[in-house]
Amino acid sequence: MIRTPLRPLARVLKARESGENPATIEAENKRRRHDEMHDRAKNRAEGRLLVLGAVFFLAFSAIGLQMGAMASSEAEEPRAIASGNPIIGQRADIVDRNGRILATNFDTYALYAQPQQLVDPEGAAARLAEIFPELDAERLVKDLTGSRKFVWIRRQISPEQMQAVHDIGEPGLLFGPREMRLYPNGPVASHVLGGASFGREGVDSAEVIGVAGVERQFDQYLRDPANEGSPLELSIDLTVQAAAERVLQGGMMLMNAKGAAAILMDVRTGEVISMVSLPDFDPNSRPLPLTTGSQSDSPLFNRAVQGVYELGSTFKIFAISQAMELGLVGANTMIDTKGPLTWGRFRISDFHNYGPQLSTTDVIVKSSNIGTARIAQEIGADRQKEFLTSLGFLEATKIELSEAPSGRPLSPKQWSEISTMTISYGHGLSASPLHLAAAYAAIANGGTRVEPTILKSNQLQQGPRVLSPDVAAEAVSMMRQVVVRGTASFGEVPGYEVAGKTGTADKPMPTGGYYEDKVIATFAATFPASAPRYVLVVTLDEPVETSGTEPRRTAGWTAVPVGAEMIRRIAPLLGMRPQVDMADLTGVTLTSN
Amino acid sequence: MTEMVYGTAPAQTGDPIIPRWWRTIDRWTMSCILILFGIGLLLGLAASPPLAERNGLAPFYYVTRQAAFGGMAITVMIVTSMMSPRLVRRLAVLGFLGAFVALALLPILGTDFGKGAVRWYSLGFASVQPSEFLKPVFIVVAAWLMAASYEIGGPPGKTYSFALTVAICLMLALQPDFGQAALIVFAWGVMYFVAGAPMFLIFGVTGLVIGSGVFAYNSSEHFARRIDGFLNPEVDPRTQLGYAANAIREGGFFGVGVGEGQVKWSLPDAHTDFIIAVAAEEYGLVCVLAIIVLYMVIVTRSLARLMGERDPFIRIAGTGLACAFGVQAMINMGVAVRLLPAKGMTLPFVSYGGSSLIAGGVMVGMLLAFTRSRPQGKMGDILSRRGH
Hints:
The complex is a heterodimer of chains A (593) and B (388).
Chain A: H1 9-17, H2 22-71, E1 94-95, E2 101-113, H3 121-131, H4 137-145, E3 151-157, H5 159-168, E4 173-182, H6 190-193, E5 195-201, E6 206-212, H7 213-217, H8 219-223, E7 232-233, H9 238-254, E8 259-266, E9 272-278, E10 309-310, H10 316-325, E11 334-336, E12 341-343, E13 346-348, E14 357-359, H11 360-366, H12 369-379, H13 381-390, H14 417-424, E15 430-431, H15 433-444, H16 469-485, E16 499-508, E17 514-527, E18 534-541, H17 559-573
Parallel strand pairs in A: 1-7
Antiparallel strand pairs in A: 1-2, 2-3, 2-4, 5-6, 8-9, 8-18, 10-15, 11-14, 12-13, 16-17, 17-18
Chain B: H1 2-5, H2 17-24, H3 27-47, H4 49-54, H5 61-82, H6 85-109, E1 121-122, E2 127-128, H7 130-148, H8 157-174, H9 178-194, H10 199-219, H11 221-231, H12 240-251, H13 263-266, H14 275-307, H15 312-336, H16 354-371, H17 378-384
Antiparallel strand pairs in B: 1-2
Helix pairs in contact in B: 3-5, 3-14, 5-16, 6-7, 7-8, 7-9, 7-15, 7-16, 8-9, 9-15, 10-11, 12-14, 14-15, 15-16
């Protein structure tokens, strides 16, 4: 600090000369400086106090104004709203095409504990472990005696369990209401429905969210309160679905298959009446995804939609239909079937030797690879690819299931001539059974494309035309011949005029090449042949029929009988009347007039 | 002659104490304080019976206690206001030492009454909150330190007072009691401002506060949620704030009528932090505006009187006391109308609370003592031609 020089120094010097005490002058100078400093401070403080006063005045005025504004506004009723967006219960039901419940809600309770309110935590833990054997008693004791203030015990409990917990009589064991998703039919249509689980969870409610199938696909719709609980109507027919599952389950066991899928589809509306994938699961308690091995072996895997397989000879009808559409062959054109057919280093042969040539119809009836491959050569790669694209074989199906996009067909990157030939009899292009059903429906309905749908529509689909009606009718009649006198002879169901095509495809090995003894057997059928209404696709994974001297794996021995049995069971359920050939009435001879 | 000088009855020079007190006291401010106290009792009649009922006491238990404490507070206030600033300062320094020690011993001897913060001494019949008493005496001591720096060759009082502030705030933050700590800092800041804080420091600190606020908002989840909740115009009607806001709306201009209010049944703090909501509901905007005007008059009038004060100690101490008193009321009411984020703060002289009342009595008593009119050396100025 710079010391202010004592001013005026002259006065001090003069005082010294005259013998006065200079200290008094110094003191006076100091006092003057002090006074000046204080005056400055006071002036500054005056201004600042004015500022402070103004600030307080304004602040109090603001509070007063705000009070006035609030007092003049309308009071609102206190509402019991949760902070954040509330958890909305009441998920809409899912019903089948006839209004029967497939999925609904069920009021239940979640059990939780507030350990600080427990009278006897150890006793309570022991009793709880008795009621819920799946709980770990030691862990429970630790949770209930620890410092935790809140412990979930069970997310859902049954009324009996709830009563048993009540009987413990502990004030610290409490129940939170829950709305749980209930699938009253158990595993029926499990892959279609998918399942639901809890999302955000509070004490008083929990959000139910769809995790698979239509529950996930239509999650927004099902949760939207604006729909006022109007149910989601599926195209599934619960009775048909149950019958199909039962038959397919039996067939799968008889044929020793490790998996199976079946699809029943309306050829004109594209509605999927029944969709089965085995093994299945109970959506009320969805199993966990597999941790080892391929997910395609999981019960959760929807073989009908997600599984893409080489579907074998069922593809032959596409090559033949296209060739007839293009005018390359007619139903009776003779095709060279002399085998084996060699193309570069590939050899194409038939299951049996069918002689030097067959008519086009017989190529289908006897399922000749050589004959089909020759016709495909005539068609060429580009036209074949275009035709298969128009049938939907090169992209995932648009069915309204959350799993649908994962069912992408596998097609060759290089669509070479050999690819053209193998694809014509169903090797080299992998597609799901649902793809096959949709393509067969296009043939069966007279030649227009249909998109499969899982929602009830009752509306005819006006898809683009892929075949002329004549060719489509010819193709159906060829397939009828397959059942009457060909590979699918076990498929005959009296009165329902089943037409169809078998397909037995060797399963590809993960390491490349094909298994000798593992096949995918498929039967794609439509009925009744005179006016097709439904398409049925039955696929068995690794079937083997062992009633004969040697194991038989061809679709004619495995998938076809299962499909026939299915038609026998479900056609009446669909309200179809068998066409019975009336025996000629015995002529009545009038013996007297 | 000798008898005339010696042995006479000791005659009092100057005026008798009481008349001089009455002549020099700021009667407007004192009246406002007394009216506030009356309003506090009136609101206590409305706000505290639900609490008494919950605690199983006679309906007007809290009102009688409030009246008893209030009597003590008013006595303390009047006695304090009669003291000279020098005596006030001396007692305040002693009181400060006592309160400081009491605050320091809280973690050992104090109790938290199950509320999570150790702020009280339990005396059996009543409890004492040392921080309430510390506030006024701290202001006086800090003002003394600051004023000392005005003397030539005086100690660096501003630095000392700042160190003291920091120490007290740390102790309060440990309890934790951030509300009182904020009040202490605010009082010190106002005093420092009046005592001549450099301008660049004022702007610098303002900038720093804004900067740290932004930083806290971005880094602390808890802090951000509080601020978001405050900025959100939709108030959850189930919170205390929601009830308070609804009560103010419900009351309208003239209130729903004496004893007709509902909010006191729902708010646990109806008799302390949210008493203004009770006032607004039962007596309407009229009563609330009256309360606001009373506080405004006390603060602005005191500040106006201090503007003419020449003694730096009195000026600074008075400013600190008036502003601490005013800002407490402001925060309490500002929270209820959602101009400020939620922070528990009592309404001085109106809210229920023994410590708060008596400490308030000490505070306004000192304020009144400092704002008494006294000679400001005007005649001396004229004689020595000062003040130009």
